[in-house]
Amino acid sequence: MSAYHKIMVKIELNKKSFIVLMVAAFSFIFGISSCQTARTMSDENDDDNLQPNGLAILNIKEPLILEPFETSAENMGDGTFHDAAFIAKDMQLGLNLGNTMEAYNASGCEKYSYTWIPVIGNNTPANYETCWGAPVTTQEMIDGIKAAGFNTVRIPVFWGNMMENDGTWTINKKYLERVREIVDYCFNDDLYVVVNIHHFDEFVIRRNSIDDCRIIFTNLWSQIASYFNNYSEKLVFEGYNEYLGGKQFSSSGYLAELPKSKAYELTNEMNKAFVDAVRATGGNNENRVLIISGYWTNIDLTTSKEFIVPEDSVPDRLMVSVHYVDNSMYWSRQIGGAAWEKYIDGQIALLNKAFTSRGIPVFLGETTAHYPKENIIVAAKYAASSECLEYVLTKLTDNGFVPVIWDTPENFYLRKEGRINDDADKIVISKIAGILKERK
User: What's the predicted TM-score (pTM) here?
Assistant: First the structure.
């Protein structure tokens, strides 16, 4: 779920008692259903083991390396790992499996009293996968994405679900296995898959120092990367979502902006921790393409000279992730006109100068699926949502970027029916997908 589009009903949690939560009235964009909470995973902890912020005292002596999952020979591929430029071109158009594996009980998450991740229902992967309104993901749903013309699926993941607050930051085995099942659905259709840390980056960064964040994210990525080590180059890791450079809780318990220099330090250090952690797991991960995340995934902030692409042990295997090439125009309701076109060109120029010119492909991890009428100017040159969609996707792909449409259940793509919702959008995706295939 994009932070740019987030509309959330917040109910403050009392961490020491059992409570019932009801979350209602979410926007059309999300269609989020209620998440039923029984307790938090920290309720059983001895208070002596907790820090003042409610987190267990950090207890990571060294990064946890998991046994690689023994996947099929087809999923392992032939051992070839191309560079980032090749992979970016081959990824073509992508779709997000949004509000699914990154869903969690976020009620009150911006409050200091939100000390750990609340348990939902019987604490099974399905309880979290469906708590924002998504159906349980099936092979047939992924088949429909492939049939529609997409060649990449981004799977946002909240790795804190089902995790114990014991200071080890150990990913729950059953949750990891469920993510792997969805990855396998995508591999069955010969799709590229992008897996990241989504929203959990926000939880960690808000409550920990830069040094502790480095330790925690190194441990998380060591687990993820080692578990998926046997998978082919079609599995791509993306470090984080949108929260690098974000606010942290102050000593008074309120979220506060970081000074810009500190925010860039945080961003750069976490990207380096991600890359180093994945590479350290060896095997296929020594050459796997990785996507580092921008400062808030904001184009202006990420193209600043203060944003540093980390050194890598292997050349030409990094992409950079930003979101929404027309975000400012969207929220100021200036879509479809000359100012919109000029703004997009300006944002693209920044990205080309900062990254493309240096051989670093640009990954648009989230781009707009639908443009409401009220966001489109009067007498716009591009007056229909599908026309705006085609214009943006064409601009992005003509510049060699990888656009991944942000989508949630039963909106742009109807998961239960396995098809794109709007016929005009369906034509746009099919047309651009065809053009990109011819370019290969």
Answer: 0.91
